[in-house]
Amino acid sequence: MGEPIRVLVVDDHPVVRQGLRTFLDVQEGITVVGEADDGAACVTEAKRLRPDVVLLDLLMPGTDGVAALHGLRELDDPPRVLVITSFTEPTAVLPAVRAGAAGYVYKDVDPPALAAAIRAVHAGHVLLHPDVARLLAAGDAPSSAPTLTAREREVLIEVARGRSNREIAKALAVSEKTVKTHVSAILGKLAVQDRTQAALYAVRTGLV
C-alpha cells in the first residue's frame, strides 16, 4: 500500500475535530496531520502541512469555509477539499462548489461513508450528496430565496442560540442599536414575524 492520505480537519468546534480525528486515525490508509478552527488557520496549516485532503466545515466564525476554499486554491499545490457540514442552503452550497470543493457531505454521514468519501475525493472524483447535486442541477438559488449579508448571518446565528440583543452586541463588538437594525432586516428578508421563527429557520437550514 502507498503513502496514507494526509487529512487536515477544519471545524470551529473542538469536540467535532476530536471526534473526526479519533475516527479517521483508525482508518487504514488515512492519517490526520493537523487541525484548524477557522478558514484563515485552514489556509495557513494547509500551506505548512501540505495535506492531500482538507475536511472543511463551511460555517465558521471569522473566515468561513468558502473564503478558505478561495485561499486554498491559491496554494502552489492545492489539496482536494471535502466539505462536511449541515448547511445545505443553495446560497452556501453553490459558492462552495464553485470555489473548488471536490466533494460535499452532511455532518450526519455514516463514518464508513465519510472515509470512503475522503478516499474518493483523493482519487480525483467529484463527490456530492444527492440533495446538493439536485440543487446544482437546478442552477442558482431562486430569486425568492432570502439572501442575508455576512453580518446578518452572524446575528441570526446568535439569535438562534438564544442570545439577547445586548449579548449579541457584546459578542460582535457592535452597538445594541446596530443589532436591532440587523434583526429587523433579517425578519423582513425571511418573511417571519419574530425571533423564534427566525431561529427555527436557522436550525432548519443548518446555520446552527
TrEMBL record:
Q: Does the keyword Phosphoprotein apply?
A: yes
Q: Give residue ranges for domain HTH luxR-type.
A: 141-206
Residue list for modification 4-aspartylphosphate: 57
The UniProt entry, under SUPFAM superfamilies, shows:
C-terminal effector domain of the bipartite response regulators, CheY-like
Sorted alphabetically, the keyword list is: DNA-binding, Phosphoprotein
Please give the CDD domains that the UniProt record associates with this protein: LuxR_C_like, REC_NarL-like
Q: Name one GO molecular function term.
A: DNA binding
Question: What sequence ranges are listed for the domain Response regulatory?
Answer: 6-122
- Cross-referenced SMART domains: HTH_LUXR (SM00421), REC (SM00448)
Question: Signal sequence: where?
Answer: none
Q: Name one GO biological process term.
A: regulation of DNA-templated transcription
UniProt-listed PANTHER family: TWO-COMPONENT RESPONSE REGULATOR
What name goes with this protein?
A: DNA-binding response regulator
What organism does the UniProt record list as the source?
A: Phytohabitans houttuyneae
